[in-house]
Write a structure and sequence with these properties.
The complex is a heterodimer of chains A (about 400) and B (about 100).
Chain A: E1 4-7, H1 11-22, E2 29-33, H2 61-66, E3 69-73, E4 77-81, E5 86-89, E6 94-96, E7 99-102, E8 106-108, H3 125-133, E9 140-144, H4 148-159, E10 163-168, H5 180-192, E11 196-199, E12 203-206, E13 210-213, E14 218-220, E15 223-226, E16 230-232, H6 235-239, E17 244-245, E18 247-250, E19 261-263, E20 268-271, E21 277-278, H7 283-297, E22 309-314, E23 317-322, E24 330-336, E25 339-346, E26 349-358, H8 363-375, H9 381-385, H10 391-400
Parallel strand pairs in A: 1-2, 1-7, 2-3, 7-19, 9-10, 9-15, 10-11, 18-20
Antiparallel strand pairs in A: 4-5, 5-6, 8-16, 12-13, 13-14, 17-18, 20-21, 22-23, 23-26, 24-25, 25-26
Helix pairs in contact in A: 1-7, 8-10
Chain B: E1 3-8, E2 16-22, E3 25-31, E4 37-41, E5 55-57, E6 60-62, E7 69-71, E8 76-79, E9 88-89, E10 91-94, E11 97-101
Antiparallel strand pairs in B: 1-11, 2-3, 3-4, 4-9, 5-6, 6-7, 7-8, 10-11
Classes of the chains: A alpha/beta (about 400), B mainly beta (about 100).
């Protein structure tokens, strides 16, 4: 038994492989990737700049080779034997490991209605290629799921003058991850851009020319895309006897119940100091957990901590959310020429911030807010709301104190 | 080397950056915390994002999208996901006017 095996070559698995070398790990590293490509970034898939799906590689094959990472492209793990420390690949080969990292990510939740198989998923490059290759003038696309991915896709398709209908079972789109004020503004923008919405209703059936809703409404569709969320990919881990819930459960060091097996990224449910487990589905989380897991696999004992952060581009608007805003937080609004910022205080302490503005104009404010959150400040709400009060000065006053 | 007039130093807040377009190219011009002025290529080397929307702290600029960072004095890539350094251009400030050499 020697070396480290990483199952999953998305953002997390690939970052972990390089981070192991950065942590001076000198043993063998095997990176197992099921897709027939070099590792690539997923966020650009729903934000293409041209007419076709775009692949942005995370690294070149030269970079993998020079870091001594053995990348098994188009290969998947079909079984894990944790007793003997071996992974059985889909071609029957057995690879032994000293330590293993699950970076298996998540897979799309599937509809269960009649005709569900007619709806396309939107998760991989192959999915994006399939969707964008079929785009053409006069096409009618139905997007099932009004979350971030569905709304990003809607904005891209409206930019191509394609008819778009969004079906969402909740009363409003973007209700889960986006603060209410900004969810409403984005919703209004989608309506102004001509997106049709069918809210508060589910999908009863899909056929090759329409989607039927639970209230009987028929929505014409040449193409149906289902983006109703993802489920952590835990099948292999569960079969091998690892503890799973909503994800592969780990301690704060990203270690599973088997001491030489770790999990990180979309598939990992990480123990929280106050009890319970949290699983994140963001690009930043995939990278930061990868780095923490890699260092711990190389011998450190570092607890995972990071502030959640994501952004979304819809039309010319950019949404950014840092931390986890809750309805119970005190919310402070700052209006700026380029958009709006919201700060969220928990008993006076700044714990989250969000912004909606044109282009990347508010990105720097969110980056400053992240630093203020990390500094644990208890800011004066009136000053936070005042656009003339420079956020950098809040940080300087903390540093000076 | 061609020197061109880019902006006034007062167009840039202290410890901040602005975008400067010239011909078909785009640049980023920085004013450091000590009022020194620097110029780099305008787009991040990772995904062609305008660094003028980035956060400047001390002598570091952080890309607004993926949080890669550069030392804008030398163009050195400091933090992943950026790996390639930024091109830098000489600057000089005469009577409050910033000149950049963009040969």
């Amino acid at each position: 038994m020697d070396g480290i095996i990483i199952i999953g070559a998305g953002e997390c698995g690939t970052r972990a492989a390089f981070a192991l070398r950065e942590a001076k790990y000198s043993g063998a590293i095997t990176l197992i990737g099921a897709e027939p490509h070099l590792p690539y970034e997923r966020p650009p898939l729903s934000k293409p700049t041209g007419d076709l799906a775009e692949m942005k590689l995370i690294c070149t094959s030269d970079a993998l080779a020079s870091a001594g990472i053995d990348y098994l492209q188009g290969s998947s793990a079909s079984k894990l034997d944790s007793e003997t420390g071996a992974v059985i690949l889909n071609d029957g080969r057995a690879l032994t490991y000293e330590k293993l990292l699950f970076a298996t990510g998540a897979r799309p939740r599937k509809l269960t209605c009649p005709g569900a198989e007619l709806a396309l998923d939107f998760r991989t490059y192959a999915d994006a290629e399939m969707i964008f290759s079929r785009m053409g003038k006069g096409l009618r696309v139905v997007i099932i799921g009004g979350g971030l991915i569905g709304m990003e896709l809607a904005s891209v398709l409206r930019g191509k003058d394609i008819t778009v209908d969004v079906i969402e079972s909740a009363p409003k789109p973007l209700g889960r991850a986006v603060p209410m004020r900004f969810a409403e503004k984005l919703f209004a923008r989608h309506i102004a851009e001509g997106v049709g919405f069918h809210l508060g209703r589910g999908v009863a059936a899909i056929n090759s020319f329409s989607v039927t809703l639970t209230d009987g409404t028929m929505v014409p569709a040449d193409l149906v895309v289902s983006v109703i969320g993802v489920l952590p990919e835990t099948t292999l881990a569960e079969a091998a006897g690892l503890m799973t819930g909503n994800g592969i459960q780990t301690d704060i060091y990203l270690r599973t119940n088997m001491p030489n097996i770790f999990a990180a990224g979309d598939c990992a449910a990480v123990a929280q100091p106050g009890g319970g487990y949290i699983r994140y589905e963001t690009w930043r989380n995939a990278r930061v957990q990868a780095e923490t897991a890699a260092r711990n696999m190389a011998g450190s004992a570092e607890a995972f901590t990071t502030l959640s952060w994501f952004w979304s581009d819809q039309y010319d608007l950019n949404l950014q959310v840092a931390g986890l805003p809750q309805p119970t937080h005190q919310c402070v609004l700052r209006s700026l020429p380029a958009g709006e910022l919201e700060f969220y205080l928990d008993n006076g302490r700044l714990v989250a911030a969000a912004a909606l503005g044109s282009g990347n104009s508010l990105a720097k404010d969110i980056k400053l807010a992240e630093r203020l959150i990390a500094a644990g400040i208890h800011p004066d709400p009136a000053a936070l709301a005042d656009p003339r009060a420079n956020l950098k000065m809040f940080l300087k006053s903390v540093r000076a104190a | 080397m061609t020197w061109i007039t880019a902006c006034k130093i007062d167009d840039i807040e202290q410890e901040s950056v602005i975008r400067f377009d010239h011909g078909s190219r785009t640049y980023a011009i920085y004013r450091g915390p000590d009022d020194s002025v620097y110029c780099t290529a305008g787009l991040c080397t990772h995904e062609a994002i305008h660094l003028a929307d980035g956060l400047v702290m001390d002598f570091e600029v952080e890309c607004p999208k993926h949080s890669g960072a550069f030392d804008y004095r030398t163009g050195e890539a400091l933090r992943l996901p950026v790996c390639d350094n930024l091109k830098t251009y000489p600057t000089e400030v005469v009577d409050g006017v910033v000149h950049v050499a963009i040969s």
